[in-house]
Amino acid sequence: MTGYGKAVAEFTDKNVIVEIKSLNSKTVDISSRLNHAYRDKDIEIRTLLAEQLIRGKIDISIFFDYKEYGNARVINTEVVQAYITQLKEIDEKSQLNSSNILEIAMKLPEAMHTEQITEVSDEEWEAVRSATLTACEHIRMLDSKKGRL
Q1: Which segments of 24-144 are extended strands (E)?
Q2: Coil, helix or strand for 2?
Q3: How does DSSP assign 73-104, residue by residue?
Q4: Domains of the chain (ranges plus CATH)?
Q5: Is pTM, for the whole model, over 0.90?
Q6: pLDDT tens-digit profile of 74-118?
């Protein structure tokens, strides 16, 4: 089957977007780009795609779109505080009286980090699984429309 399907699983803090692209092929060949939180579901996702789409070169992408925090980046306060302390010491010794120490500290490595989601709840997984099935259905509908043209 050749086609494209997209579905979204909506949650309070984020949307999980499932995109599937498929090209005609005699066998099934699946490549996946999954958010790290779904890595342990890779085999289950591949099995689901093989059952639903039967054959083809299939690419699936599952990624997050955070609603409130952009990409869920947070300030690593301990690291930033340590940077500020060190920068103040340097500033005092050099007698430069810099007023942008916080700005400098925020640009240093590890000042910001992305929260890593390591476990997916059963409820979230069911919603993402359902979104995957919906995306597969979009591909099948598109493929059946092509057959009628």
Answers
A1: 28-34, 56-66, 73-75, 112-114
A2: coil
A3: EEE-HHHHHHHHHHHHHHHHHHT---S-HHHH
A4: 3-69+118-148 (3.30.230), 73-113 (no CATH)
A5: no
A6: 788 899 999 999 999 888 888 777 788 888 888 888 888 766 666
